[in-house]
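Tokens as discussed.
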């Protein structure tokens, strides 16, 4: 007899829907693999309505509603705020996929705290809580013997945290260096092609990965949040994004970019974490890299992180031109890890 495992989804945007599509396609194989009958029993959104159905929401219908630009009601639309919905969901796990608030990680942090209070396991794709409250949330989960998984928060479904946790036992991460922000990478690349800064931003917005207000990317905040997450999880840091020494790319001119190319170099926005006098330090800054350097080959939406360890030297991971499915997969892989751990 398969055990029921109920999910409460916070957010039904691009990431959440990509996850739901994978879950729908693999519903039977998840049952077979894990012995769990996984159902989504609650969905919260900000403006598209909220649903609770303890028998399991019809996900196909919910996805269709969004495609038709309708609210996700089936019979009646619930007027619940997200915290009340979490309480009413009676779910076994919460998946936090609401919009990122880079400046404080809220209200996602309060949703995760509520879930732990109610004895629910948590997966987050939202990096805000990891960047702002990783240590405290992780401790809450440990104290209550609950799982807290967050692979999608940096490089989507590409294993970064899991790589270190599961495949490098006994290795200490001494430092890391990465290119982790698509918008800045894309904008500099467009400037390399001769486009000016404004049209490069417009193009990034047209391609759908720069926000209407791109300043969070351009000023290095998104990169700082990812740097914080890596520094805290992989190196035991206790940083928040404001502790990161941060320089964005707003001051970089077309002349800077073309001068770099003339010198056979490229400008890349680098995220870095390292130890200094025993303290974990995080930095985000534009750097000139040789064209022959692997960092120079990371194009537009691709990303790279190089992890330097004591026993395994340097390991490089590249995510090549990700689509939204990779984000959905990151959440799905955390779900499978969670169910696998429950079976141990
Ligand atoms: N997209 C990616 O490739 C990707 C990759 C890695 C991580 N992530 C992270 O995953 C999260 C979701 O990203 P996304 O691309 O799916 O964003 P999105 O398309 O903007 O969707 C966000 C969803 O969250 C809902 N929401 C916002 N505030 C809420 C609240 N207080 N309570 C309940 N629901 C709320 C929104 O509702 P409304 O639509 O009604 O506003 C929407 O359904 C973000 O934190 C993002 O940083 C995304």
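Sequence:
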């Amino acid at each position: 007899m398969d055990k029921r495992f109920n999910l409460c989804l916070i957010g039904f945007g691009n990431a959440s829907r990509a996850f739901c599509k994978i879950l729908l396609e693999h519903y039977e194989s998840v049952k077979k693999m894990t012995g769990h009958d996984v159902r989504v029993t609650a969905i919260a959104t900000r403006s598209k309505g909220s649903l609770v159905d303890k028998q399991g929401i019809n996900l196909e219908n919910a996805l269709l509603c969004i495609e038709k630009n309708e609210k996700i009601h089936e019979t009646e639309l619930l007027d619940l705020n997200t915290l009340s919905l979490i309480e009413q969901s009676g779910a076994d796990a919460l998946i936090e996929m609401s919009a990122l608030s880079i400046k404080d990680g809220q209200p996602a942090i309060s949703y995760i705290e509520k879930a732990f209070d109610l004895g629910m396991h948590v997966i987050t794709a939202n990096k805000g809580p990891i960047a702002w409250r990783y240590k405290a949330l992780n401790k809450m989960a440990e104290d209550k013997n609950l799982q807290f998984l967050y692979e999608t928060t940096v490089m989507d479904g590409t294993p970064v945290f899991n790589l270190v946790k599961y495949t490098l036992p006994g290795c200490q991460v001494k430092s890391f260096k990465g290119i982790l922000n698509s918008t800045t990478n894309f904008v500099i690349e467009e400037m390399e092609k001769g486009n000016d800064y404004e049209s490069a931003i417009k193009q990034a917005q047209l391609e759908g990965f720069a926000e209407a207000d791109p300043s969070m990317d351009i000023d290095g905040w998104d990169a700082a949040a990812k740097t914080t997450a890596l520094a805290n999880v992989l190196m035991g840091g206790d940083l928040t994004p404001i502790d990161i020494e941060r320089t964005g790319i707003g001051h970089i001119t077309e002349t800077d970019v073309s001068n770099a190319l003339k010198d056979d170099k490229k400008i890349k926005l680098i995220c870095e974490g390292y130890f200094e006098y025993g303290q974990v330090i995080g930095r985000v800054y534009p750097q000139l890299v040789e064209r022959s350097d692997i960092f120079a080959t990371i194009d537009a939406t691709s990303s790279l992180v190089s992890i330097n360890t004591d026993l395994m030297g340097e390991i490089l991971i590249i995510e090549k031109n990700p689509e939204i499915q990779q984000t959905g997969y990151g959440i799905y892989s955390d779900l499978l890890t969670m169910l696998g751990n429950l079976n141990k």
